[in-house]
Amino acid sequence: MSTGGGFLTFSGMVMVMVAQVTSMMASKEAMSRGVNRFVLISYTSAFSALGLLPFTFIFRRRDHPAVTFPVLSRLFFLSLAGCIGTMSGYAGIDYSSPILGTAILNLIPAFTFILAVICRMESLDWRSSGTLAKSAGALISIAGAFVVTFYKGPAILIPHSSSPHHLLSPQTNWVLGGFFFAVEALMISIWYIGQASILEKCPDELTTVCCYCFFLTIQCAAVSLVLVRDPASWILRPDIGLITVLYNAVIGAIRAGLCSWCLRRTGPLYCSMFKPLAPVLAFVLGVIFHGDVLYLGSLVGASIITVGFYAVIWGKANEKQEIKDNEVDRLEPSNSAAPLLSNKIVEV
């Protein structure tokens, strides 16, 4: 695995970010046209699980361990976090905009670091510059999230396609949308921690993800059936609703495949550096297709979150380098013993 990326991996990660943003924007468009978000969640997760199922049987290796009941139990509870995160994400899109969502989701590295410390998967060494950078980055990211959520500020760029009715829509609740996106970021971080522990017990990514998607579909459908009692809401017509469901299901699988491919060739650090590209793409596409407005609070808050994001990533990379340097220092005395011994033999 190389630490740098070539043209193909660079293009792949840009496509991953484009897929994430366009999926959020397609969902926003569908919900703005009356498609129930719970119905959208249920159908999208169901199609994703069905699409992933045949690949699980095709590409599963025979030497992989069987999925045991304890692993399935963990996947079931992990899917609860996924269900809460998915529903919170769609609620955030419904109440605010993809621009806010892509900015808030940069909190994931900070939340993951905090949870890893709580679960004792990360150790804190306050003498280490890596620990200090990660801790400072986590605090800076959270501060940026407060700014982007609670300070909307004046509009600094208003497209000509935006109308006053669009700007004053009661459905746009910035604070509530930011809260839901923060919950989604927290649930994704919990998923990272939980999935890491599960893969230690069962190192079969495709099978565990398929089981996870199956449980997620059941849980999302159960919640949606309770909250959406109108049978007419469950009918998918050949319009934006059906297109969004199919697009999100297909693009989700492609995004996961591209991300895994780039991750295997370049490592997590290189892939993580593309996350701050998402708010820029969300704004550009939002202006073109939705007539979204750029607010000062979004720009300032996203910038602060980006600084914190890179501080966490830099701290993680620096910590790995410190570990390698310490291992080299420990090996140097043993390696230097051989030349000294040979010199004494020559002298004799």
Q: Give unreliable regions as ranges.
A: 163-171, 340-348
SSE topology string: HHHHHHEHHHHHHEH
Biggest sheet details = 2 strands, antiparallel
Q: How many helical stretches?
A: 13
Question: How would you sum up the global shape?
Answer: globular
Q: Calculate Rg over CA atoms.
A: 23 Å
Portion in strands: under 5%
Give a count of the beta strands, DSSP E runs of length 2 or more: 2
Helix content: over 70%
Distance between the termini: 48 Å
Question: What would a concise description of this structure say?
Answer:
The chain has 348 residues and is mainly α. The protein has helices at 7-32, 37-59, 69-95, 98-104, 108-118, 129-150, 164-167, 174-201, 205-227, 240-266, 268-272, 277-289, 296-347, and strands spanning 155-157, 294-295.
Provide structural commentary.
- The N and C termini lie far apart (48 Å).
- This protein has 13 helices and two strands.
- Helix 5 (108-118) crosses helix 8.
- It is globular.
- Helices cover 77% and strands 1% of the residues.
- It has 348 residues and is mostly helical.
- A two-stranded antiparallel sheet has the order 1-2.
- Residues 163-171 and 340-348 have low confidence and may be disordered.
Question: How are the SSEs ordered, and which strands pair?
Answer:
Layout: H1 7-32, H2 37-59, H3 69-95, H4 98-104, H5 108-118, H6 129-150, E1 155-157, H7 164-167, H8 174-201, H9 205-227, H10 240-266, H11 268-272, H12 277-289, E2 294-295, H13 296-347
Antiparallel strand pairs: 1-2
Helix pairs in contact: 1-10, 1-12, 2-9, 2-10, 3-8, 3-9, 4-12, 4-13, 5-6, 5-8, 6-8, 6-13
